[in-house]
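Document type: protein sequence-to-structure record

Subject area: structural biology

Format: plain text, a pair of labelled lines:
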Amino acid sequence: MLKLLYAPTSPYVRKVMACAHLAGLAGRIQWLESAAHPVRRDDRIAAHNPLAKVPTLILEDGTALYDSRVICEYLADLGASADLFPAAGARRWQALTRQALGDGLLDAALLARYEHTARPAEFQWPAWREAQLAKVAACLDAIEQCAPMLATRAPTIGEVTLGCALGYLDFRFPELDWRARHTAAARWEEAFSALPAMQATLPHDI
C-alpha cells in the first residue's frame, strides 16, 4: 500500500488526494500522521524527505516521492488517468501552466499566513505580507480571465490545482472575499467544488 505523510489543512495534500480520487487510487493510500511546520522539523517526515514537508508519498518499495507536482503525476500514471496530465501538445502546456498559477497563488498565500502564524510578532514585516497578498490578487485576476475555459468534468492538473488554491483562500483567508471581484472564477469554483474528488478532500483543522 502507498503511504502519504500529510496534514489535513495542507492545500498541497488536498491536491494530491484529489488526484488520487480522480485516478481511482484513494483506497490504496494509507495516511500517516505528521506535524509539518515551516520552522519546527518533524523527524517522521524528514526521514523520507530532506525538506520535511508534506505531502510526501512513500511507495511500496520504500522510495519517497515529493513534492505535490511529482506525486500527482505519479498517481495519474499509476492510475492510467490520461485526463490529469495530457500527454503532449498545447493542452499539456496549458495544464502545466495553470498548475503553476495555482501553486504560485498557494505559495504566496502560505507565506502571507506564516508571517502572522509562524513568525514572532516583533519580527513580522507587514510590507512583506502585503506583497504576498498582491501576488494572490494578481493570480485571482488571471484565474478570472481563464475561468470560462476551465473544465468542470474530466479536469486536468491545472483545474485541480486552481480549485485547491481557491478553496484554500476560503479556508484561511475568508476576509479577502475573493468572489466579490471575481464572479467568473466564483461560478467555476462553485461547479468544480461539487465534484466528488473535491468534496472528499475538503480541508479541516485538527
Remarks:
- Strands lie at 2-5, 29-32, 56-58, 64-65.
- The chain has a mean pLDDT of 96.
- The radius of gyration is 17 Å.
